[in-house]
């Protein structure tokens, strides 16, 4: 897919080189199809990664029309990294325990109001 090559590029970086070939309002339409056959067309900025799925107006999950079968099964086998996964990659459990301890102390001492 041509869109894939845009991944990771930013308009800001390109504009430094040349304004001539840059369309600042570049948009593309991404089509999502739900199991019921409804089509949802999302106008997205060209430099934004389209989500793999979108909630259809009927409430079902619509999948991106240009998504290849293989890619979908990959996603099922390999769940997306969560914030938790990323946190665990950056901090050891020991560090997290220390952070939690500190945070709890701050709550106890009234530095941070309870959220609920
Ligand atoms: Zn639908």
Topology readout:
Layout: H1 11-17, E1 27-33, E2 39-45, E3 53-55, E4 61-64, H2 69-77, H3 83-90, H4 93-108
Antiparallel strand pairs: 1-2, 1-4, 3-4
List keywords for this structure.
116 residues; alpha+beta; Rubrerythrin, domain 2; four-stranded antiparallel beta sheet; 4 helices; 4 strands; 34% helix; binds zinc ion
Provide a short characterization of the protein structure.
The protein is of the alpha+beta class.
Describe this structure in words.
Forms a complex with the RNAP catalytic core and with free principal sigma factors. Keywords: Metal-binding, Transcription, Transcription regulation, Zinc. One of its GO terms (biological process) is positive regulation of DNA-templated transcription. By secondary structure, the chain is α+β, with helices and mostly antiparallel strands. Among the domains are: 38 residues, RNA polymerase-binding protein A (Rubrerythrin, domain 2), CATH 2.20.28; 30 residues, no CATH class. It has 4 helices and 4 strands; from the N terminus they run H-E-E-E-E-H-H-H. Strand 3 and strand 4 form a beta hairpin. The model has no long low-confidence stretch (mean pLDDT 77). It binds zinc ion.
